[in-house]
Write a structure and sequence with these properties.
This protein is mainly α. Helices cover about 60% and strands about 0% of the residues.
C-alpha cells in the first residue's frame, strides 16, 4: 500500500481532513498551488478539484514519460 506525508503535499488547512474531502477539495488544497493557479487550471483544463487534477490526462502522460526517462538512458 502506498503512503504519503500529507504535511508535505497539502496546505495546512487540509492536512487533517479525510481522503474523500481532500479529493473533493479545490486544487489550492495542495501545497504550493495558489487560488490563481487553480483558476488557471480551471480555465485551461476544466480542473476544479484535487481528483480532477489526478485524472488530468496530460499530467498522467507526463508522469508516464518521466517514468521512461531513467530506463531510456
Amino acid at each position: 500500500m502506498a503512503s504519503i506525508d500529507l504535511d508535505k503535499v497539502l496546505d495546512k488547512a487540509w492536512a487533517d481532513k479525510e481522503l474523500a474531502e481532500i479529493l473533493a477539495a479545490p486544487v489550492s488544497a495542495l501545497k504550493g498551488v495558489s487560488d490563481r493557479d487553480g483558476e488557471l487550471l480551471k480555465q485551461a483544463f476544466g480542473t476544479v478539484t484535487v481528483a480532477d487534477l489526478a485524472e488530468l490526462k496530460y499530467a498522467r502522460w507526463a508522469q508516464a514519460l518521466a517514468a521512461l526517462g531513467p530506463a531510456a538512458k
